[in-house]
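This protein record is not my work; I was only asked to verify it. Would you go through it and say whether the fold makes sense for this chain? Here is the record exactly as it was handed to me.
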Amino acid sequence: MAQTSTPEEPARTRPNPRRRSERARKAILTAAGELLGEVGYNRLTMEAIAARAKVGKQTIYRWWPAKSAVVLDVFAELTGGSAGEPLPDTGDLPADLRTVMHGIVDELADPLMDRINRAVIAEMQADPELAEHLTRTLLRPNLDAFGERLRAARDAGQIDPGLDPAITVELLLAPIQNRWMMRTGALSHAYVDTLIDTVMRALRPRD
């Protein structure tokens, strides 16, 4: 009796460990961001993040030593950049500032980002260790990036050479932070444009 041949079964594709790890990492950051907005930083736990992300707690500790490190990466994930990333330098300082500061107000307008920011800032007032960590790893590098861009503009003769870059950064960013924190008015691209135009009048080189 002749034997009938059967087609060979296609070889099963093995799961890609890197792809699986990336899915787990994104699930952890998504879960941490959601919980941070819901319960705040103080009540956020690694156990809750693991349960929401459907991963083991040790999976989280494989990448992050503490919840403060997770929160830092949540910010990086939501903003799509890394702390201290250089500002664009096209030679047009007002245009470069508009590009970056429009992005800042867009992030603050996002409901999830708004809840996360407010939860973390509230906790920073009572937790000096958290405040120092976030200032050192996130806030200070970003402020320094603004300062470097202003120094480049000063060296190019675009702003007054006697200006202090650190104070100038505060002139640019503090009004946005205050308006957002105190809810005193809408944050929009038009507001940012007016703010930059106003600050640039004070920055122009003196005769």
In short: The chain has two domains: 20-77, 82-203. The mean pLDDT is 88. The first helix runs from residue 17 to 39. The CA atoms of residues 5 and 11 lie 18 Å apart.
